[in-house]
Amino acid sequence: MTETRPASPGTQRPGGRTAKVRRAVLDATRDALAETGFHTLQMDRVAAEAGVGKTTVYRRWGSPVGLVTDLLHDMAKQSLPASDTGSLAGDLRANAALVRETLTDPRMGAVFRAVIAAASCDEECARALAGFYRTRLAEWAPVVVRGVERGEAPAGTDPTELLRAVSAPLYYRFAVTGEEVTPAVAERAVAAALAAARAGVFVDA
User: Fold this and answer.
1) From its phi and psi, is residue 87 left (phi > 0), alpha (psi between -120 and 50) or beta?
2) Whether this model's pTM surpasses 0.85
3) Pair (97, 149) in one structural domain
4) Is the pLDDT of residue 76 over 90?
5) Is residue 94 domain-shared with residue 193, that is, in the same domain?
6) Where do the HTH tetR-type domain residues begin and end (predicted)?
7) Which domain holds residue 173?
8) Are residues 32 and 45 in contact, defined by beta-carbon separation less than 8 angstroms?
9) Do residues 187 and 89 both lie within one domain?
10) Torsional class of 37: left (φ above 0), alpha (ψ -120 to 50), beta (otherwise)
């Protein structure tokens, strides 16, 4: 029998005034993460910045983890849609550019550092971060499908693995080595991923 889990704090999507409260709280959470990081995220400060009673914030989100988890769900839904440039190479470059621009943006880069830090020390945040990336990969998977249909990659190419190969080097520099994520780095990641794809590396066995 599959175990069922209760909904995470704040993850339900009510409408009306409650939706406005949620929007204000998540915006305040994002701002706080960008400014001071996860480990100093304070529920009272978020409530004050959002103009919401702290009792409401504690009741609906429960903890800083609940805030970050819901923010990740929201970020996945609000992200820009995949491109359609007419070529697989163009679409992968657009994907790499979007990742690079996000990571190098002073504010959003700080937010991602904070949520990665949260995920490294909390299982619920880790699941939410994994869900964020599953959503984004699913959004971009059609660009690979179209590329295969145009003959730009072998039949059976795994869209998710190809897309991961594009973004992984960028995240490695961002989160592990702290090296600059330049346009040249993004272009090399795309070129390497495309070469591997054309060689059949990402074809399902």
Assistant:
1) beta
2) no
3) yes
4) no
5) yes
6) 19-79
7) 81-198
8) yes
9) yes
10) left
